[in-house]
Amino acid sequence: xxxxxxxxxxxxxxxxxxxxxxxxxxxxxxxxxxxxxxxxxxxxxxxxxxxxxxxxxxxxxxxxxxxxxxxxxxxxxxxxxxxxxxxxxxxxxxxxxxxxxxxxxxxxxxxxxxxxxxxxxxxxxxxxxxxxxxxxxxxxxxxxxxxxxxxxxxxxxxxxxxxxxxxxxxxxxxxxxxxxxxxxxxxxxxxxxxxxxxxxxxxxxxxxxxxxxxxxxxxxxxxxxxxxxxxxxxxxxxxxxxxxxxxxxxxxxxxxxxxxxxxxxxxxxxxxxxxxxxxxxxxxxxxxxxxxxxxxxxxxxxxxxxxxxxxxxxxxxxxxxxxxxxxxxxxxxxxxxxxxxxxxxxxxxxxxxxxxxxxxxxxxxxxxxxxxxxxxxxxxxxxxxxxxxxxxxxxxxxxxxxxxxxxxxx
Length: 410
Prior knowledge:
The chain is α+β, with helices and mostly antiparallel strands. Helix content is 35%, strand content 26%. The protein has helices spanning 3-17, 36-42, 61-77, 123-167, 225-240, 248-263, 360-370, 376-391; strands at 21-26, 31-34, 81-89, 95-106, 112-121, 186-193, 201-207, 212-220, 272-280, 285-291, 297-300, 305-308, 331-334, 339-344, 400-407. The strands form three sheets. Strands 2-1-5-4-3 form a five-stranded antiparallel sheet, with helices on both faces. The protein has a five-stranded antiparallel sheet with strand order 6-15-14-11-12, with helices on one face. The model has no long low-confidence stretch (mean pLDDT 87).
């Protein structure tokens, strides 16, 4: 077999078996030679059926005119058309896509006598591209909507934070009964730091009579909007329960019952710890009741000593929200001149170091003892800084609330 015959056989094999659409056209756009894939794509039984025909015999007028314009430009300029994504509209309106490369076809003298083309069916890829682009557009719209909602949510959270901070005491009650120094019998200070925009810790200080005041602190399980909503409900109930605030135990029992009644239809349960203490300017002791809240610490400032107001676990009742009828017993502890009582939530000491060790209550008491002689405005940052250095972080995973009550000296 000579080289020419071999070349012809190889060419015929290529045209018969390649999946690509290979074709040759004359200067009038008529097919001179096509591969089997072209015939199959055109719906012809045999490649020979396409010889002498043009795109106008198979495609819509619009498609045929576009392909003819491209081919004229190739023959006029001698410049190939490489990798065009070509939209093909069938006579029945069906649309497919080709990845098209067309070259000027030249004779032995280098004269352009038509075009040679190779098409790949690009329909599946194009549909995938279109689907991806549609999805990208949908995601862009969704992202824009989410950004707008996030902006609104941030604004709402800022307002919620401002409202929550506004609910905290701005002025402390001034009681009658003065020492020789001429100062009120008690002074108050607080530190409040929510872990999120809003928090689940809350406290209040309110007058009960001319010489008595109540100090309330609570910690709703978790933090964020849900916990903040519960604290708002508790804040409202405090006003309703003023008549029973002269007895610490009755007050916590009534608060628990009201909360249970309001939230009994809420599927997700809530739990809150609380501590309520009554100060009396005429007495050197305080009355208190505890609903599973961390026991406050008393500072003996002149001695530089810090200790829990009680170490008796019996003096701690169950948290709010667990049971309907709970009677919280009332207890007392000494509260002498030049002493302070520090109330706090567990977010202050339930922090962990990098190796997973918890700061803990004992370390907090030790820290309070080291700084026992400091005034409240210096005590708060000193304790918080020590806790942050232990955890190697400047933020807290839980809300932090600290309230200090100091009894004036004679």
